[in-house]
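Quick one:
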Amino acid sequence: MSREDKPVIVQSDRSILLETDGPCFEEARDCIAVFAELVKSPEHIHTYRITPLSLWNAAAAGLTVDEVKDGLSRFSRYEIPQNVLTDIEETMGRYGRLKLYKEQDEHLVITSDDDRLITELANHKDIKPYIQDHASGVIRINPIDRGNVKSALIKIGYPVEDLAGYIEGAPLELELNERTDGGVSFGLRPYQREAVDAFHLGGSNKGGSGVIVLPCGAGKTIVGIAAINKLQTQTLVLTTNTVALRQWKLELVDKTTLTEDQVGEYSGDVKTLGPVTIATYQVLTHRKTKDSEFVHFDIFDKANWGLIIYDEVHLLPAPVFRATAALQARRRLGLTATLVREDAREDDVFSLIGPMKYDVPWKELEKQGWIAQALCTEIRAPLPDEERYNYAVAEKRHKFRIASTNPLKEDICESIVAQHDGDNILIIGQYLDQLKTLAKRFDAPLITGQKSNKEREKLYEAFRTGDIRLLVVSKVANFAIDLPDANVAIQVSGTFGSRQEEAQRLGRILRPKGNGSLARFYSLVSRDTCDQDFAVKRQLFLTEQGYRYEILNAEEIQNPEETPA
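Output:
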């Protein structure tokens, strides 16, 4: 391609500018996304930033320094600044420079070809507390400190490659069914098999811990089940809530030879153990007082688990990181639709769960027909005069609520619902008063955290069967609800600029439709407010995955016949 057609400009501050209008935009975007993080994405130029963690994830996934440099060179309009090339080489070179092995006496050693680096680390204040002894090129540590050392090393800037291996765990015999209980043919999709193989790596010490990133609706649960089958070991699965727990249990019994009594449930309602046990993050982080011990952490030691699966790993509560630091001898699999964490603890995911082992662009799975094609639309509405005044004089912490609960959003919802007569619609929001008003307006069921799991599941089932075509749901429906026929989502309010929430809400409508229809994702935003500012941040997720989104004014939805063609 000619220099003018190249869409990338690499700058000396490690930022990358990507023009969206050129013929090579999509190819360049897919190349860059593997080793750089998206920072902002206005219409014409997207900005990425190369970070140590983005490069270490690329290195852990098998990408080489030369492949990163060649990718940049291929699409860069101008010469790449020398300092950026040097930083890429040195940063990626840090991954694996330290290696962690197990000795015959079960002690762990950190080794390196660089004796001076070992000496430097042996004298580092954050590593010293864990050192048993230090010799030339070797630091010996206690196995119980494996996680703490890994976490400390990545913060110092030297992520260690953990080759110390894992305990096998108690054996568990199971097979994948060829047909489900409903008689439907079942088998792993090609990318699901690739994901499991990338995690397992033939059973070597290079595999066995890491994160798999797949879209909602692409079958992350099936990947987890396939990993259990691959390892044939007793497994602890950690999930976001009881609804997700029950769906895991249904899938395990439906897709494998495990019986219902072999799958234990450890939740607020039931506490039974089985060869495969599914627990919720909520029960794990329960404690009687703010300063007391976590009551149920002993579940990690109640059985000889060979594998621990962290569902929606981007939501892993901070206390579970602490428990996971002591679980480094067990294989660990994280499943997520996005590695973005709102608490910026991606480095803890990397060091304690493992690096990203498999990722596939959402649009790639859309092209292959595994998830539905989606059209994303942001609709901007002004605040009414009275609300505009209230917004202007409100304290900063109240402005977002005023903007999010703009009453004009209710009228826009009505217009969208009218245009999608016969579709299966989810109205999703953050504020209960707003959702109650919408539920009353549409005479639709409302699902919030106040509804029992039994009531929620009854309504979800009615939606699946078509008895209900519109549900109003709070953020409890962001995760792990299986509504395959939902094809329209209307987001009336969100959690500030949460990219992970945007991923989950779009994911609610991405199951492939039998009639091949489009999935439509609408986000309603108050113009010229912090609601609009946060929406820009949420859109980063859509851009990361290759989605184009249109921005419309409210009147273009409410009076489409009056809108010029």
